[in-house]
Amino acid sequence: MSKERVIKLSLMVLLIIVFSFCMLSSPFCAAPQKKVGILFLHAGTSDEYEPDWLPQFFVSFFDIFDPGFFAGGPLEGKACYTLIHYANEAEAGICGVEQGTPIDIFCNQYTGHYSIHSLLDHYSDNSGNGIPDFEDDCFSPGIPVPWAPLTFGHNTIDPITEEKIYGPHVDDPAGTGIGIADFLEMDAFSLMDKYSRLPERKLPYREQILKWWLGNDVPGYPPDDTELSNIKDRLQEILPGYNFVYRYGWDTYRRNVDVYGNPKYWADSIETAIDELINDEKVDTIIVSFTEALFSNVTQYGDEWYDTNGKGVSAIPGKTYKECVEDITDGVGPETTEDLNTFLANKPWEKHWEHSLPLVKHLAENIKPTIDLRFVRAFGDFEEYELAVLDMLNYTITKYDIPKEASLKVVLSHYGYYKAYLGAAACDSYFRMADDLTSRIIKRIEDNFSWPGKYELVAAPLKYAEGSIYDPPSQDELFGKVLSVGEIVDASINGMYVNALGEKVNNGTDNYDTIIVLNGYFPIDDFDCTLYGGREEVLGNNVYGQDSYERDRLDQDGTKYDTDDVDAEGFTVRVYDGTGWPSQPGCLESPDACIKEPPLYKGSAQNPTKIIMCGTILGNASGIGREKLTDAAAKSITEAIQGSGCPVTVALGGDTRENDLNILRNFRDEVLSKTPAGQEIIRLYYEWSPAVVKAMEEDEEFKTKAKEMIDGVLALIKAGAE
C-alpha cells in the first residue's frame, strides 16, 4: 500500500475516531446546522444610468468630506435650487431626449418658469457680512458652501445664446433637486457622461459579480454558454450537506427608501435581503460576505467595529475607528484638540453610523434579536487571491509576448490613501490592510516570478496621491509625499514628460521598455479605478488648469476614453513615443507666455515605452485567475460557517504551531483535494467543524485526545514527505 494511501486512511480513521468520540463522550456534539443563509454584499453600481442610489451610497462618506459637501441634502440642510442642464450629446443619449432639452438628474424635462442661470449670479454680498446673500437665504446656518467646485465643476451650453453657464440651476422651490445634496446632483450628471461611453450604455459590473456569486442562476442576464466558476457551486462542492439559501444586497440600495428618504421598496436592497432570509427562509444563521479584497471603516466596518476576537478595527490594531480618531496622542488622525473638537462638531458620530456591516447587524437584530450573524474576512486575506493576481501577471506577459530581453516594470495598484477632513480618515483600517495586502502579493510575485532583464516590482495607490489638493508637490518633494501609480509611470518611461510643477523632465532613453499596471485590489469592472477611470488616473501628461498642473484625464489624442480604448478582456495598451498628450510647461511662472511655446509630448520617439493597463479577473473572458479568486472567497465563507474556528487549530493551540498547521493545509490542498476520497474527507471535516470545536472548548479531555491523534497523523505526513 502506498504511503499516500496510508495517510488518507489514517486521516479517515482520525475523523471517524474524533467524531465518534465526540458524539459518544460529549454532550456538546449536536448535528451541524443544515440551512444557512448567505448574504452577498457589494457596492452595486447600476447596469444603466440611475441616480437613485447616490444618497444612500455616499452617506457612508459623510465623515471624510469637508463640511459643505452634503449641503443641499438632509445631512447639511436643504438648498433652494435644482441643477438643470441643457442636454448635451451624452446626456441626450442617456435620457432619450433631443439635445438642448433642459433636464434634471432624473431625465425629466424641466418645464417650470424659472430661468436656468449660473451660481455666479448669486455671488454677491449686499448684507456686508462677507457671505453671499444667496448662502444666507438658501442654506442652513453654519454650513460652508463650496462655491468653486459647485460652480466650476459642471456647466451647460444655452442652445439659443450658445453661452456656457457655470453651475447651471433653477431657483425653483418645487424643483426635484430640493432635498438632494448639490454635489450628488453634480455627480449624477457626470455619471451620464460615463454611461454614455460604455457599450450599449451598460456597465458590466453587476452581471460580472452576480455570475461570480451565483453562476448562471442569476435572473435577468443571459446564461454563459459555459458556466464559469462561481462561489455558489464551490460552496456546494465543499459542503454538500448544507442547504444554502442566497440573497444579495447593494451598498447603493441599503434601506427601502427613495432618493429623498421616503419609503420605497427595492427588491435588491440590503433591507429586503435580510427580511427575506429571516422571515421567508427562516434561517437561524446568516453568513455576511462583502466580497472585497480588503475592508475599510468607511465602506464596511464603520466607527465601532470589533473583530471575532473582540479587538477594535482601524488603522491601529486593537482600536476602533472612533477610538483612533479621538486619541490625538497615537500619531494617527486629528493632531490637535482643536482639530478633534472641530471634527466632532461637524461630523458627530450619530450622523454616520450606517456603514454596511453595522447596518446589517442593526437590521437583522431588529427582526430577530437571536439571529446568528457571522461576518466573513476579506478574500484578500487568503493566499489564493495572491495567486490569482500572479496568474494575471503571467497571462499579461504571454498575451503581449513581451520579449525576455526587454526591461520591465510592474506596478501593483490599489485604491488610494486619503486622510480627508482634518486627517481623520488616516484612522481607517484601509491604510493598514492595503499595506498588508500589497506586501503579501509582492512577496508572492517575488517568490514565483523572475525576469532575466532589467526588472522592478512596486506597489502604489491610483487615487488621492497627486495633485494640488491631495498630495501637492514641492521643489523638495517633486511627487509629494506619496508616489501614485501615475507618478511612477512618469518616472519610469523613456523620454520627456511634464511634472506636477510644470517642469520639463527628461528621463533619457535607458529607462523601461514595458510597464505593466496590475490590479491589486479591483477584480471587477467598475467606473472608479478600472475601465476608463484607471486610465484617466495614470496615462496622461500633467497639464495646466486653474493655477496648478493636474493629470490629463483625456487620451493621447485629446478624446475621452471609451469602449474603443479597452479590448475584450479589459486591457489597454498605449505607447509613449513623443506624439501624444501635449502639455505646455512653465505656466506656473508665466501663464501668458507659456501658451505661446510649443507643447511637450510625452515619451520618446527614439526608444518608446509601452504601457499595459491590465483588465480585471472577473472581466476577463478567459477566466484568468477566476478559479483562485473563487477559492479565496469560498474559503472566507467556509471559515465563517465553521464558527469558532478550525478543530485542528484549536487542538494544536492556535498559531503557536504555525509550521504544523501549514503542513496540514498544504496536504489538504495538494493531496486530499485532488481525489474524490480526499474531497469527501474535506467535506466531512468542514461539516462537523463547529460541533467538534464546541466539544473541545467544553471538554479538555476530548481536546487532549484529539491533539494526540493529530500529532500522529502529522508524523505520518512528515515521514511521507521524506
Write the layout of secondary structure elements.
Layout: H1 3-25, E1 35-42, H2 54-58, E2 82-83, E3 85-86, H3 89-95, E4 102-103, H4 133-138, H5 147-152, E5 155-157, E6 164-166, E7 169-170, H6 182-196, H7 205-214, H8 231-238, E8 243-250, H9 270-280, E9 285-290, H10 297-301, H11 321-326, H12 337-346, H13 356-367, E10 372-375, H14 383-399, E11 408-414, H15 429-448, E12 455-461, H16 467-470, H17 485-492, E13 496-498, E14 504-506, E15 514-519, H18 531-538, E16 542-544, E17 549-551, E18 572-583, H19 591-594, E19 600-603, E20 609-613, H20 626-641, H21 647-652, H22 658-670, H23 676-698, H24 700-721
Parallel strand pairs: 1-8, 1-9, 9-10, 11-12, 11-15, 15-20
Antiparallel strand pairs: 2-7, 3-4, 5-6, 13-14, 16-17, 18-19, 18-20
Describe what this molecule looks like in 3D.
The longest helix is centred in the first third of the chain and has 23 residues, at 3-25. This protein has 24 helices and 20 strands. The strands form seven sheets. It has a six-stranded mixed sheet with strand order 12-11-15-20-18-19, with helices on both faces. Strands 8-1-9-10 form a four-stranded parallel sheet, with helices on both faces. It has a two-stranded antiparallel ribbon with strand order 2-7. A hairpin with a 4-residue loop joins strand 16 and strand 17. The protein has 722 residues and is an alpha/beta fold. The chain is globular and about 85 Å long. Helix 14 (383-399) runs antiparallel to helix 20. 37% of the residues lie in helices and 13% in strands.
